[in-house]
């Protein structure tokens, strides 16, 4: 059985080599491609099935944010994990809005990077320390716009979504609603699919923007 199929995207060849070495040491991960530009990355995604794209933000020609926007459009099942030397609020927000499922800085430890790739592949967001706070601070400054955001969810899915939007883990949801672990995973997956959300970070933002949770309910 093959591992998580990963593509590396960075304009520095030495860094791509280092990343390949680090990630290939994890038996869960298979690095299948590495390219130097966002445009090349888009072409690879058009031709190959990938689980995760590990994407630099700042590159010549097609940058990481623009490439992420297109990759999410043409391959919705492919997750993008941004990796950058910059810890910049505007870049964080742009990456998340483009559809990135995670954002890490390049000083991340090797084991943490490999785990982040696995987390993103499984549908969990991976954010560097402080990045989640940046995103939620942005959300707090955006006026909530109320909508019928729960249309299409079953009553149980709506309960799960309410807890998900408050930052509860699967284990906490399982304990609070007295459900099995598999049932919680099924409900979380259904909620994200029905609402067109890529992961938990986007679920929190969606819930707040639609007035489903208040400022004091937000995690962090």
UniProtKB/TrEMBL annotation:
- PANTHER family noted in UniProt: TRANSCRIPTIONAL REGULATORY PROTEIN NARL-RELATED, TWO-COMPONENT RESPONSE REGULATOR
Entries under SMART domains matching the protein: HTH_LUXR (SM00421), REC (SM00448)
Residue positions where 4-aspartylphosphate is found in the record: 56
Q: Which organism is it from?
A: Nonomuraea thailandensis
Query: Domain named HTH luxR-type: which ranges?
Result: 146-211
| Family annotation (InterPro entries) | CheY-like_superfamily (IPR011006), NreC/VraR/RcsB-like_REC (IPR058245), Sig_transdc_resp-reg_C-effctor (IPR016032), Sig_transdc_resp-reg_receiver (IPR001789), Tscrpt_reg_LuxR_C (IPR000792), WalR-like (IPR039420)
What's this protein's name? Answer: DNA-binding NarL/FixJ family response regulator
Does the record's keyword annotation contain DNA-binding?
yes
Which biological processes are named by the entry's GO terms?
Answer: phosphorelay signal transduction system; regulation of DNA-templated transcription
The reply on keyword Amino-acid biosynthesis is no
Where do the Response regulatory domain residues begin and end? 5-121
Task: Provide the alphabetized UniProt keywords.
Answer: DNA-binding, Phosphoprotein, Transcription, Transcription regulation
